[in-house]
Specification:
This protein is mainly alpha-helical. Helices cover 73% and strands 0% of the residues. The longest helix is centred in the N-terminal third of the chain and has 37 residues.
């Protein structure tokens, strides 16, 4: 009889352990489901196609904006995400290009300011020439 009692007790212990394990299992399954709902969903083919079209449209808008500003050569270089950033980039690039145009523009080497004497000589005014020599302007 003691053997039967021991076997009954071991069976009860095993059932309790299974019950505890089942309870833990159900808790883990519930937690897993909760975490799955928090994960971002995979985009469908339609959503991917829509995103691709939106990206293509944005690139065309960037290209057109740069072309309007005379900066179409920078289309491959400029990578922006929104319109505010695009406007800032266009403003900066325009400023840089204008500065380069000024620096690279024609600057004569031998261009000097005409003195009062030279101006008077050019006009043929001898009185003004004499005044300019003696500083009586």
């Amino acid at each position: 009889m003691s053997d039967e009692k021991v076997t009954q007790e071991t069976q009860q212990n095993q059932q309790q352990e299974q019950y505890v394990e089942m309870k833990k299992y159900l808790e883990l399954v519930a937690e897993n489901e909760k975490l799955r709902t928090m994960l971002p969903k995979e985009p469908t083919e339609e959503e991917r196609a829509l995103q691709a079209k939106q990206q293509e449209l944005w690139q065309k808008e960037v290209s057109l904006s740069l072309k309007e500003a005379g900066l179409e050569k920078f289309v491959d270089v400029v990578k922006v995400n929104d319109e505010k950033e695009l406007k800032d980039v266009i403003k900066k690039l325009t400023s840089i290009v204008n500065d380069l145009k000024i620096e690279m523009g024609y600057v004569p080497n031998d261009h000097k300011q005409m003195t009062a004497y030279e101006q008077a000589k050019k006009q043929g005014n001898t009185v003004a020439m004499i005044k300019s020599l003696f500083g009586m302007n």
